Amino acid sequence: MGRPVVHWELMSKDPPRVAAFYEKIFGWKIQHMPEMNYRLVETGGTGGINGGILRPEREEPWPGNMTLYIDVDDLAAYRQRILAEGGKIHVEEQEVPGMGSFSLFTHPEGRMMGLWKIKK
Which of 29, 81, 92, 115 reaches 20 to 30 Å from 75, CA-CA? Predict the structure, then answer.
C-alpha cells in the first residue's frame, strides 16, 4: 500500500485573484471560508486531488514552492486560456516519450505549474 498525495495548498499574496484564475481556466469549484482564511478547492473528476489556497498569517518567505501537473485534453487551448488570464507560458509543449506531453506556465504571482496530456 502506497502513500498517495491527498491534498495540496498554494500560498498566495492575493488568494481571491489566484482563485479566480484557476476557476476561469479549469472550472474548479472554490469555496471561500473566511473564518479559516482559506479557500477550499474541488478540482472535480475521478481520482483528482483537491486542495486549498491561502495567505499565511506569518511573514514571508513561505517555504514549499511546488509544481502540480494538471490533466488537460488540449495543451494548446489551455495555453491560450492561461495567457488570456494573465499567466505566462515557459514551455510551449514537450513530449515525454511513451507517456504524454506537457507545458509549463506561471500564474499571475509567478508560481510554476504544469499542464499534462496523457498519450493515447
Answer: 29
Query: Phi and psi of 54, rounded to 5°?
Result: -150, 160
- The tens digit of pLDDT for each residue in 32-78 reads 999 988 999 999 988 889 999 988 887 776 655 567 889 999 999 99
pTM score, two decimals? Answer: 0.77
Are the C-beta atoms of residues 60 and 49 closer than 8 Å to each other? Answer: no
CA 115 to chain centre: 9
* Residue of 35, 2, 37, 36 lying closest to 16 (CA atoms): 37
E runs forming strands in the chain: 8-11, 29-33, 38-42, 51-54, 69-71, 88-96, 100-106, 112-118
47 phi and psi angles, rounded to 5 deg? 80, 5
Q: Residue 13 and residue 16: Cα distance in Å, rounded?
A: 9
Question: What's the DSSP call for residue 86?
Answer: T
